[in-house]
Amino acid sequence: MHTKQTIREAHTTFRRHLASKPDEKRQRDASILQHTLKALDHFGAVGSEISAYHPLRTEPAAADYPLQLAQHARTVWLPISLPGGVLQWAACTEEQQPGALGIAEPVGSRFSSEVLKGCAALVIPALAVDRRGQRLGKGAGYYDRALEQVRDHRIPIVAVVFDEEVVDTLPAQPHDVPVDAIVTDRGFFPL
């Protein structure tokens, strides 16, 4: 089995390659939005509070992904990265500012990850997901720490990846919180 680092490197290379094909990426991003909406409907989260993320240029989903999701949710909570691997959350609005890690962040009141306990679904990024629901992130542990706080609340977690990033098996740690579904550019897959 490959190490987490070699898997991260391979998927990062794949994403850079895909980002160099803007027409293909745009089509895939549009499909990801549609399949995310199917996932939200499946989990009864349409019209409710959800969390999402603001994608980087190489990540799955278009730059307006959170604003598109906000049209189908009461509130979309977006992460704000703080030093020490901590995430805070603010409601998605059109007013955004560059964050500490170069990721667009909403302007407004910030809340701890406790706010996620009121969500009907959590839509999160990943570099890869396996068929058991193990998620591989970028390695800083931001989402691991946030998800640990809601682990016992049985909130559906939906990982968003490109279809090529769904793998058979990923290395897992005891602290890893598995996801309940996968959204790709090819479909929505409850686990």
TrEMBL record:
The keyword S-adenosyl-L-methionine does not apply. Its EC number is 6.3.3.2. It comes from the Bacteria. The keyword Magnesium applies. One of its GO terms (molecular function) is 5-formyltetrahydrofolate cyclo-ligase activity. It catalyses: (6S)-5-formyl-5,6,7,8-tetrahydrofolate + ATP = (6R)-5,10-methenyltetrahydrofolate + ADP + phosphate. This is 5-formyltetrahydrofolate cyclo-ligase. It comes from Corynebacterium pseudogenitalium.
